Here is the input.
Amino acid sequence: MEAGHSTQQHSDLAVLYPRSKTLQTNIIEFFIVVVHICLRFHRYTQKSGPAQFVSSLNDSDIKELRASLITWSKSIQEEITTLVAQTVETEAKSNSAFRALMSSSFNRAYERQKQITLHKLWNRCSTYDYETPWRQIRKAGNTCLYKQLPEYNQWIGAPASESLILVGKLGYGKSVTLANIVDDINLRIEPKTSGLAYFFCRHDLPESKHARTVIGALVRQIISPLEHSLHELKVLDRYNLPQLLALMRHVVPSQYVLYIILDGLDTCSPSERETITEQLELMAMHFNVHICISHRLEPGTELQSIAKDFPKATIARLPNNASDIETYVDAQLEAALLEKKLVLGDPTIILEITKALLDGSQHMFLWVALQIQSLCMMQTDHDIRKALTNLPQDLSQIYSQILQQTKLSDHTLRSNMFKLILAARRPLTLPEMREALSVTPENTTWDPSKLLNSIYPALATCGCLITVDEEEHTIRTVHPSVNQYLLQPLSCDLSKIADWSEEQNHFTMEDAQKLMSLTIVTYLGYGIFGTELAVRLPVIDVGSTPAEIIHTLGAGKVQSMALKMLRSRKQTNFDASSSFAQNSKSPRPPSRDDFLFQHYAKLYALQHLSELPAVSCATAENLLRMAKSGAIIVKSIEEAIGLLWLMLRPPGRSDVFELLTHIDFSTVRALDTSTGPNLVYLFSQLFESAIVNGRTQAIKYLMDLYDPLISKSPDAVQPLPNLAFPALRDFYHRHGTNSSQYSHAPAMVLFGYAPICDAIESFQDDSLDLLLSYGSFDLNIPDESTPLSVAIEMENPRALELLLSANRTAKQPLTLKTAQMGIAFATELGKDDFILLLQNYIKTMYPNAANHDSMTKFS
Here is the structure.
């Protein structure tokens, strides 16, 4: 019985039996005892009755076998317990490792997803590279003079929000000072309780002067260290300025101290500057924000005038930088001598140079740097001493001197380079500039022989007024004042200028924009762009260095081939074709990848066209093909205006609106969408842009194109073949003739509301004069904002004179009632000059007016 029970409890040993030799031995011994017991009972049954009775009286062997059976059973049980425990432990370890692996994998996936979300949130704030401008400026020099200012020390330790404006004259080194302040604050603050954000507006990058770019970059820097507060935020597709401020309020702790450094604010447009200032003031209202801004102190400008724009800020003039100037002069002259850029015959001249530079610097680092480079271009001690006795007094004079020292064989090349630099939406790289300069506007036949062999001789024609960034290999002017010098009109009579090349040094921004637009349109019209049959592979942006290396390798191969051919030409068995074949085993025609300017041209073509240049190249078909293939994508209202302007050029297209699929029109008020996506809105924006920017040639073109539509009856304009957009004509027929909203001013149907007022408010008198010459606009608008009231309110007397003289062409000249309302409005504002102009108009135009006497009470 006991043997059976013992054996039964181990009936499931099949699983554990193979795992242990000890268990196997114990089980065998157990069953050996069982066999002995069975054998003992078998022998017992074979005996006779008396023998069985005698044998039953002695069961010692049975007891011995029973004890042995129990012993082996316990051994088996102990071994089983041990094996089970080991199995459980092994399985526990395996499960623990698996759980740890799964947990680690989950944590990594969670962290990766969190980082993706954070980067998406940061990119929604800004993708602008704010570090590179600071790094470029920081390398220009060191200074600690700002620490001498008590206003600076008070500002940095202020317990509440405080704003500090550091002012200095042109060329003082304000940007370098603020770049050093960024370093100083970064070393002072405690990252857990304070944050630092900075932004340097670049004069050669229009994007950096937009309010959304500035505030977005600042907000990104502020929230980036506060990752723990960003985990559960929902990432929006786009953040406008109020949403950026709300994001900060959600993330930034109440006791957190923010330091904001902003340089170049005075280079932004007035509207963008006002928006930036408003946003900074809102930040200061909700957070403990310490703001430091640089500001240029113009000649004759007092600190009190700056205080009007920043009433709550502390304004401090940067200290005398004579010691820094002296250190800078010594360092620059030493470097010029060591690098043999400055070569002297008489070593004592170096002392004369040092004294002259220190005496004439007027605290301007830029003046010193340019003057040293100018002296390095001189060949004799006599020339150097002569230059020292008549040093330029300001930057404009030294710019003129540097350009006159440069020997030129082609003034047009230098002028075009300056124009392309000033018009570029971002600095062009060396290969891009090389290709752009090789383009002949309006000639869409590509000629490789016209490609500049090297860009560096062309760069040398500009002297030291342009610089090539060593990191990005991009070209830019050395200072914003160079742009101002190039764009300013000549101050003297050209007939008295001995060197007529001075005239080539000056141009208008419109000239620069026209050249860039013509260059892009011509370049993209070569015929090899936008003809792709296969899907374009994504372009991986790894910077300009690889392109520079490839270009260098290509140039080196050409030089090697030329050298080999030169050395071999006198050999009797010289074969130029075999020599060329050895060095160029697989000649191929140039592909699209060889044209590096195409990346800039395709990205910014429509933005340049939005400046409404006088494009005379008939390449609309090619650009339209590129837009349809996705090589050029319209993503903004600005780019849509550029495309619309190009398609309005002959022969004109009416199917461009199918390309406006990437623009978000949800926030744009449209008058009608049945003729296309915000058709009238886009056209009105195009016309308004031409007016407020003074593009008179564009205004005239648009007026000549559509004046017959708004000045004739619908029946008369139906057969006109020169209407580029029949949809606009149809819209006018449906709304311009039946809608009372537009019946008083048909020009507004196509040109937007109150273009006359736009010209007055933007002080574009030439635009206003041109608009009035067509006589298509009603000056007696039944609205509070009449052209007269706008001219009076904006204090634009020239505009009022043009309005009053418009009766010579206007279909509806100013009525007596409109003029009298203007007098009443001018009287209310106390504008005596405008009252007099209006009174003279009434006396001339309405001498027999019944209320002429009552009109005199306004005088």
